[in-house]
Amino acid sequence: MAPTRLGDGTNIGSIRQGDGTEIAEVRTGAGDVVFTSEQLPVAYSNLVAWWPFDSGTYGGSNADDVTAIFNPSQSGDSTDFDGTVNGANYQSSGGVFDINAGANSGAFDFDGNDEITIPNVSINSSNFTVCAWVEVDNIDSGDNGIMGNGSNRLQFDFNDADSLRIYSDDGNFETPTTQSEWDDGYHWAAARQEPNGDVTIFRDDAVLGSGNVGSISGAFGRIGCIQSGGVRGFDGRIDDVRIYDTALSDIQIEAIYDNTDPNQNP
Questions:
Q1: What region, left, alpha or beta, does residue 105 occupy, with left being phi > 0 and alpha being psi -120 to 50 degrees?
Q2: 156 and 145 in contact (C-beta within 8 Å)?
Q3: Edge-to-edge, what's the strand order for the sheet holding 84-86?
Q4: What is d(CA 203, CA 55) in angstroms, rounded to the nearest whole number?
Q5: Is the pTM of this model over 0.85?
């Protein structure tokens, strides 16, 4: 089986289970092949939740968490984090390249008052990465939530029009941005690394900033806003939302970007 490679052909290793067994393909519980390991840019076992919002078999307009439907021996977290759509408009075209459905395969459009609620995905001061493709229509003077949960103040958001941040009541880090950096579709990611508590924020495959935040805790419970009822909501399109239980490296973030960027895939 061919190894997993970046867009430039660099071998980043094949995908293996915890016992070292190489995973040739990922299947549903019914045995249907969903995609092969050559298409997966980062080890699938590190995925906690993944909402691809594709218009094909998985995800789509129901905002399903696809990690829960795969064979547990080959997948990441088996907890069902399926979303409930409240007001967000599903577009069957647009968004990132999807490894199941291909290019131009769908995204959710938010108008600043919408939300997708999800069962709480807890972050308790440990290694994690949260990432999503985002295309902005408007950033207002408040918090503009890509993901959040108002009850415990865990946020991944644009703060006004000048920074992107990962935030909780225990600690936060934000890095400056400008309108030219968010008015088109970009892949944004925040990765936190123990034991030092550093958070690194990425746009596409570039590091925008890194800093120490100490403790980060809480749970993501919404996509497209910060608080219940679409409060402090996002205005634009969101696609391919992922949460990993590890701090992904620069190379891994680049691999996800290369694997999903609609401008780099046929």
A1: alpha
A2: yes
A3: 84-86, 115-124, 217-223, 143-149, 154-159, 163-167, 172-176
A4: 25
A5: no
Q: Are 96 and 239 in contact, with CB atoms under 8 Å apart?
A: yes
Q: What is the 3-state secondary structure (H, E, C) of 183-200?
A: CCEEEEEEEEECCCCEEE
Lowest mean pLDDT among 14-28, 110-124, 235-249: 14-28
Give which of 194, 234, 232 is closest to 213, Cα–Cα: 194
142-162 pLDDT tens trace: 667 788 886 656 777 777 656
What DSSP assignment string belongs to 31-53? --EEEEGGG-SS-GGGEEEEE--
Please enumerate in sequence order all residues whose Cβ is within 8 A of that of 49, keeping only pairs 6 or more positions apart, or say none.
Answer: 65, 67, 77, 79, 81, 118, 121, 241, 242, 243
On whether the CB atoms of residues 235 and 136 are closer than 8 A, the answer is yes
Do the beta carbons of residue 77 and residue 46 sit within 8 Å?
no
Residue type for position 219: A
List, in order of start, the domains of the chain with CATH numbers: 42-260 (2.60.120.200)
Name which residue leads in pLDDT, 185 or 24. 185
Distance CA 180, CA 74 (A): 40
Closest CA to 168 of 124, 128, 121, 234: 124
Higher pLDDT, 230 or 153: 153
For residues 45 and 60, give the distance between their C-alpha atoms in angstroms, rounded to a whole number.
Answer: 22
Quote the CA–CA distance of 235 and 139 in Å, as a whole number: 7
Integer Cα distance of 114 and 162 in angstroms: 22
Look up tokens 């977290």; give the residue.
77
